[in-house]
Write a structure and sequence with these properties.
Elements (H helix, E strand, L loop, with lengths): L11 E6 L2 E7 L9 H6 L1 H5 L7 E5 L5 H13 L2 E5 L5 H5 L3 H8 L3 E3 L11 E4 L8 H19 L3 E8 L3 H16 L4 E8 L4 H11 L8 E2 L13 H14 L8 H10 L8 E5 L6 H11 L10
Parallel strand pairs: 2-10, 3-4, 3-6, 4-5, 7-8, 7-10, 8-9
Antiparallel strand pairs: 1-2
Helix pairs in contact: 3-5, 6-7, 9-10
Bound molecules: pyridoxal-5'-phosphate.
Length: about 300
C-alpha cells in the first residue's frame, strides 16, 4: 500500500558546488512516490474532501512525472484514472517502462484518443503538468516553509532558483513571497527560473494564464543556446554527474541539468544567499539514464567541464 502522508516541512541543507555555497531545499524527500514538485501542486487534492469525485482525467505525455504522480493520487484516493495522450509509440506500448509502467501498475487507463469535451460531475479534470489554480495551495505551503527558515536564519535577502516546465511552481512561489513581504516581513525573497519546455515567451504565456499581474511573476533567466525538452545533451549529462560527485545529491535528468547550467551562468548577478529547489522527479531518471548511457558511453567520472 502506498504511503498517504507527505513529510513536511522538507529539509534544507547546505551544499558546495564549484566552490559556491548553496542552500538546497529537499522536496525530493517529501514522498517516495510523488515527484516532489507534483506533491506540492497536488497537495490540495490530497487534503480536501471530494465527496462527488470518483474519477480523475488528465492529459499530456505518456512518460510525464505528472501522469505518474496522478496515478499515485488516484490510488490513494480510490479514484479511477483516465489519461489521454496524442500519441504513444509502439515501442512504449509493447515494452512499458519508467513512469508509464508505474502508472499502469497503479491502475491508470491510457487512451490515445481525443479527450472528451464534456466530463460528468463525478470527474475531476487536471490540466497538463498540473497547471491550475489549485496548485497555489501546496506551493504557498512550500513558500511559508522557506520563509520561516529564512527568518530563523536571519537572511534579509534570499534568492531562490528552480527550473520550470509549466512555470506554475515558480509563479505561485513568487506570488506568495510578494504577498508575504507586503504583509509584515522585512525579509525579501526573489524567485529566478529558466524554461525547460519551450522558450522564455512560452513560459511568460504560461504565467499569464495563471496570473495577469506581471509584478507577481518570477524573473526568467536563460542560456544562449536553445535546448529541446527530453533531448539528450552531453553538457546536461556532465553537470548531472559532476553535481552527484561534488554534492552527493542525485538530481533529476530532465529539468535540473538546464537549471544548474543556467544558475551557474548567472551566479555572479545573484545575491550571497541562494537556495536551489530540488523538485524530485527521480522516478523518471531510470529511462533517461538508460538513454544517456547508450548515447554517451565515454562520459564518466573523469569528466571535467
Ligand atoms: C513537473 C516538474 C517540474 C516543473 O514544474 P512546473 O510547475 O510545471 O514548472 C520541475 N521539476 C520536476 C522534477 C518536475 O517533476
Amino acid at each position: 500500500m502506498q504511503k498517504t502522508s507527505l513529510a513536511l516541512p522538507s529539509p534544507i541543507e547546505e551544499i558546495v558546488f564549484d566552490y559556491s555555497l548553496f542552500y538546497l531545499k529537499r522536496d525530493d524527500a517529501i514522498h517516495p512516490d510523488f515527484s516532489g514538485n507534483k506533491a506540492r501542486k497536488f497537495h490540495y487534492f490530497l487534503t480536501h474532501d471530494f465527496p462527488e469525485i470518483r474519477r480523475v482525467v488528465s492529459y499530456g505525455s505518456p512518460q510525464s512525472n505528472a501522469m505518474y504522480s496522478l496515478s499515485v493520487l488516484a490510488r490513494i484516493r480510490g479514484w479511477m484514472f483516465d489519461y489521454y495522450v496524442d500519441h504513444i509509440s509502439g515501442y512504449l506500448r509493447d515494452h512499458p517502462h519508467g513512469n508509464y509502467a508505474r502508472a499502469l501498475a497503479n491502475g491508470m487507463q491510457l487512451h490515445a484518443t481525443p479527450r472528451p469535451e464534456i466530463l460528468p460531475p463525478d470527474t475531476l479534470l487536471i490540466h497538463e503538468g498540473g497547471r491550475q489554480s489549485e496548485a497555489e495551495y501546496g506551493v504557498a505551503i512550500l513558500a511559508h516553509e522557506i520563509a520561516d527558515w529564512q527568518q530563523e536564519q536571519g537572511i534579509d535577502h534570499l534568492d531562490i532558483f528552480l527550473p520550470s516546465g509549466t512555470g506554475t511552481t515558480a509563479l505561485y512561489l513568487q506570488k506568495t513571497f510578494k504577498k508575504l513581504s507586503t504583509l509584515h516581513s522585512p525579509l525579501s525573497t526573489k524567485i529566478y527560473t529558466t524554461p525547460c519546455v519551450g522558450d522564455g515567451s512560452y513560459l511568460r504565456k504560461q504565467f499569464a494564464m495563471l496570473e495577469p499581474d506581471e509584478k507577481m511573476w518570477p524573473t526568467t533567466l536563460d542560456l544562449p543556446r536553445k535546448y529541446h525538452f527530453g533531448k539528450l545533451y552531453r553538457e546536461f549529462y556532465e553537470i548531472w554527474i559532476e553535481l552527484q560527485q561534488q554534492t552527493g545529491v542525485i538530481f533529476d535528468l530532465l529539468y535540473d541539468p538546464k537549471g544548474w547550467l543556467t544558475l551557474m551562468a548567472h551566479r555572479d548577478q545573484m545575491g550571497q544567499h541562494l537556495l536551489y529547489l530540488h523538485q524530485g522527479g527521480l522516478q523518471g531518471n531510470e529511462s533517461m539514464l538508460r538513454r544517456y548511457k547508450r548515447s554517451f558511453p565515454h562520459v564518466n567520472k573523469d569528466t571535467k567541464r
